[in-house]
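[Meeting: bench + compute handoff]

Bench side (C.D.) handed over the final construct sequence. Compute side (W.E.) agreed to return the predicted structure before the next meeting so the bench team could plan truncations. Sequence as handed over:
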Amino acid sequence: MGSSSPSSVSSVLLSFLCFFLYVLDLSNAQSSSPVFACDVAANPSLAAYGFCNTVLKIEYRVADLVARLTLQEKIGFLVSKANGVTRLGIPTYEWWSEALHGVSYVGPGTHFSGQVPGATSFPQVILTAASFNVSLFQAIGKVVSTEARAMYNVGLAGLTYWSPNVNIFRDPRWGRGQETPGEDPLLASKYASGYVKGLQETDGGDPNRLKVAACCKHYTAYDVDNWKGVERYSFNAVVTQQDMDDTYQPPFKSCVVDGNVASVMCSYNQVNGKPTCADPDLLSGVIRGEWKLNGYIVSDCDSVDVLYKNQHYTKTPAEAAAVSILAGLDLNCGSFLGQHTEEAVKAGLVNVTAIDKAITNNFLTLMRLGFFDGDPKKLMYGGLGPKDVCTTSNQELAAEAARQGIVLLKNNGCLPLSPTSTKTLAVIGPNANVTKTMIGNYEGTPCKYTTPLQGLAGTVSTTYLPGCSNVACAVADIAGATKLAATADVTVLVIGADQSIEAESRDRVDLNLPGQQSKLVTEVAKAAKGPVLLVIMSGGGFDITFAKNDPKIAGILWVGYPGEAGGIAIADVIFGRYNPSGRLPMTWYPQSYVEKVPMTNMNMRPDKANDYPGRSYRFYAGETIYAFGDGLSYTKFSHTLVKAPHLVSLRLEENHVCRSSECQSLDAIGPHCENAVSGGGSAFEVQIKVRNGGEREGIHTVFLFTTPPDVHGSPRKHLLGFEKVRLGKMEEAVVRFKVAVCKDLSVVDEVGKRKIGLGKHLLHVGDLKHSLSIRI
């Protein structure tokens, strides 16, 4: 054979490459169809089955399907990789997909390809929560579900998403606090129902139809992953009924009652000696009984296996299968129920009726999603596809969410920077030019990244040095960093954490900045020619007392894990294109707090006898680095009380026990609650005039707190409501709160009942305080 010229070799390679791409495109096209049942067009005989008849009520269709299945087939629908039944035209379905803050590649139900290489990656939840903007929570959910449906239509995603995480961020060391909406039950509840509605609600508004199915997790009192050898798989959370009902349960209740969520996931841990996935009181009793869940209960992955193997709660795998199903579990993430349920039936530990009940709940959810309605491309969301993922407007919402969440913690007047007078900017720190760090965990491939460095360099001339090779910062390049800072007009230090510091299965042991980060910050501040700005990227808080008190550090921003557009948002805030309005959704404690408080103590309330200080702004009265709700603006807002009652009289029935004896509190239900306010009715209005007294437009979060009478171990204060208001310079507006007397002003007593304290209640808005008396 003669030798070929370079040009002919190139043309052969080019032809081969074109052919390869053509084949790849064909394979993409072949895999680009969604998974669905009742494909009557391909198999007309399926039209005879009742479960494929879309005219019938969903309940009848599900009953028809369950009646056609053998025991083995039924058991196949108890697990997350649900076996198909070819004879009935039902394909295999993978239940496990995730969408914590964007469509995720975690979980086998979803993946990215050449067709859809990425999806919009919003800020990690803790930063979105800092916006205190319920309409934003819902808007993000709506975008995520649209992108999920678009990916489903080309065979890249499922319809069931095991998000959001609505656990309370109880301890600052928790590695998964970043996934949650923070420490406050009201904020967590509002986030939970808002995000769920955004994910689930269809454009038609039918509550029995689902765009995608959300899942609130991890039920319940789950917030220890791996701390000093204590692991979530064996941890027994000892929780009082009072803490359960006023702290841990409210976000889950809101998911189900207010959000109409399609699923709740039970957790790995035990609560008071019982695995949550095998506790009939928690599952059948509360979720399905009291709250009336319209959907299915799923286990955390392999948690039925965990309660048998790690917790030794049952003697055999068959007993573990039976006790979980009988408790109210419908679906097992993993394969355990698929392997051991038939044995449990044969041993008489569980009957087929209980299995029918479980798979009925699963099928009802799939029916509501349209899974049994034939080709999805002919249904409501059939027109969605790759063009609807990573749209310009979706990516702008990701940037806007980050802007709204960023919290300004310190400003000595240096911020915002002037883009014209700032000639040189030194950007230093291990998180200054990161990409993946910005999207936290339970992430997906983003549309694109804008790093902090890229965002800042887009505005002014910058020089850059990482300062440390990673956030662990075992060795810091102090000499290089100080040299850079000494020549710049302004220095921005971007520091903090990433998933190597705080993550699932990784709790922190202290609240100090990792490695030599503190030294890097201090030395740079000493050497800097101009002001130093500290940007902290993290889920949890740090003890940064040294920086708070350092006069050379002119400003401090907490930016959470700000998502794919983090750099855009950080630059917009620093250069004043956006006036910061985020507020901390959790307390930042000093290091001394975690030195004395074990992470495993679940008690929210202080215990003076044992020198236990309590947890969260609601119960902890000690020193903080920054408090819940802290956050500054570039303008100045003031509050004036316009309207609020001084007295609320509760009218008791003639034979009420408190008419003849002195009571400190009353039940927060009953006729006295219905006519609590003068003129009749159960609520009153608080009106607050908010004034922007500064020279620039700003958005302000108005918090309404209350301090109840000191009865039943009541909170020092707790959040009744929050509202966002946008005001131009020197503009004012009236913000209104509707306060339901018995719902909003009550507290949970020692046995979990809601009581309304008699006597003085103090309402707080900023520095404003208003005394209100409740009497009989």
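W.E. noted at the follow-up: Confidence is low (pLDDT under 50) at residues 1-30. C.D. will use this when planning the next construct.
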